[in-house]
TrEMBL record:
Residues 34-47 have a biased composition (Low complexity). Residues 1-27 form the signal peptide. This is Lipoprotein. Residues 140-150 have a biased composition (Basic and acidic residues). It comes from Methylovulum psychrotolerans. Residues 28-59, 140-159 are annotated as: Disordered. Keywords: Signal.
């Protein structure tokens, strides 16, 4: 079997051709940077929040809006539950859990959620998720039974 050998000059020519094609293919299509006078007129503004969990710049919900939300949400909740039960006398039974859920939601209410609920009469998805968490928290009336502790041996029976 015959091995193919390339002369050093052919190898060098191929290497130079690859380098030349690579360098010309990497052109810079960016526009020229503006002059100093143009950039002084418009200060640079960050395009995005570097910390997406930092909500310190968000609009705060006032206490009156929170109270209005709590009252309207509780009234809507009671009306929905009474409608679903079919018995208008159940209103007193649903009043306490619905008020608890509304209070629980009010503590973590954002401006966008309050605006959607109070002015646009919509329930945003984030409010639905918080509602499920609040309902789980508020509707646990009984404490679960205490589980047995298997780490300690049972005391010996007294004779």
């Amino acid at each position: 079997m015959k091995t193919l050998t390339l002369p050093k000059t052919v190898f060098a020519a191929l290497l130079c051709g690859v380098v030349a094609l690579t360098v010309t293919a990497c052109s810079d299509d960016k526009p020229e940077k503006p002059t100093a006078s143009a950039s002084a007129a418009a200060p640079a503004k960050p395009t995005h929040n570097p910390n997406p969990f930092d909500h310190s710049g968000d609009i705060k919900v006032t206490d009156s809006e929170k109270q209005k939300f709590e009252q309207e949400f509780a009234a809507q909740c009671v009306a929905r539950e009474v409608h679903n039960s079919g018995n208008p006398e159940d209103k007193a039974r649903f009043d306490k859990p619905c008020t608890c859920i509304a209070t629980f939601l009010m503590k973590d209410l954002t401006y966008q959620e309050a605006e959607k609920f109070l002015t646009e009469h919509e329930n945003p998805q984030s409010l639905r998720i918080k509602y499920e968490n609040a309902a789980y928290h508020c509707l646990q009336e009984k404490t679960p039974p205490k589980e047995p502790d298997f780490s300690r041996p049972a005391p010996a029976a007294v004779q």
